[in-house]
Amino acid sequence: MNNNLLYQGAEAKLILSSYLGRKVIIKFRINKNYRIKEIDELLISSRTKEEAKLIYQARKQGVYVPFIYDVDIQKGIITMQYISGKRIKDFFDDISDDERKKLCIKIGQSIARLHNTDIIHGDITTSNMMYMDNNVYFIDFGLGEMNTELEAKGVDLHVLMETMESTHSIHASFFRFVLEGYASLYKGDIDQVKRKIDDIIMRGRYR
Fold first, then answer.
1. Most buried one in 111, 194, 200, 203, CB count within 10 A?
2. Closest listed residue to residue 130, CA positions, set 185, 171, 80
3. Strand, coil or helix: 201
């Protein structure tokens, strides 16, 4: 298979390729020339290691994520499963209300599974979720971290809420079903999480 560039952003580029006969995505973290070389290399290796670890931990919690086939920490490369489904962003507004409700509940349940073990995705948007074989797959943990703070969990959910308000404004109210799914599996105090989201909203209004 020829290598095909799928995406290039400020932090990484994604290449469609093959690995041991499998269709894969190869994620390369990009070197930053404005950083001191040694610091740049350290940051790339540490972030690559952290992302691979988060994906692995997410899978252990029952969250659908790409399989990781290979990691080169020094070069900042992760070789992972190609998810051949559709981005949720691309069909979220086109399905029935009942299907959208069920999808939002699934999304909320997956986020709760992450948060129950303090995994913060860092960029939960409908662009970073794929739908394949009736399952929601979370991709791109590049901004993720392990964090026990309620603030981080609130921000994670708030990012998705803002995405729905901006990208899927006609169906933004369906975020309540994300929270419904989240509440069904979250092991902490759901009222605290909701209050934190409200607090983040208020801070944004008066900033």
1. 111
2. 80
3. helix
Q: Do domains 4-81 and 86-205 have the same CATH topology?
A: no
User: Check: CATH 3.20.20.80 for 4-81?
Assistant: no
pLDDT digits (tens, 9 = 90+) for 105-141: 999 999 999 999 999 999 999 999 999 999 999 999 9
Extract the tokens encoding 142. 């590049």
Share of the chain above pLDDT 70, in %: 98
What's the first-to-final CA gap in the chain, in angstroms? Answer: 50
Residue appearing with tokens 């964090």: 147
H or E element, residue 28: strand 22-29
For domain 86-205, the CATH class is mainly alpha
In contact, 153 and 119? CB cutoff 8 Å: no
Residue 126 is given by DSSP the state: G
Between helix 175-185 and helix 150-167 the angle, nearest 10°, is: 150
Residues annotated catalytic, as ranges: 123
Specify the long-range contacts of residues 194-202, CB closer than 8 Å, at least 24 apart. Answer: 196/150, 196/151, 196/153, 196/154, 197/154, 197/157, 197/158, 197/161, 199/154, 200/154, 200/155, 200/158, 201/158
- Round the average pLDDT of the chain to a whole number and report it: 95
Domain ranges within the chain, ordered by starting residue? 4-81, 86-205
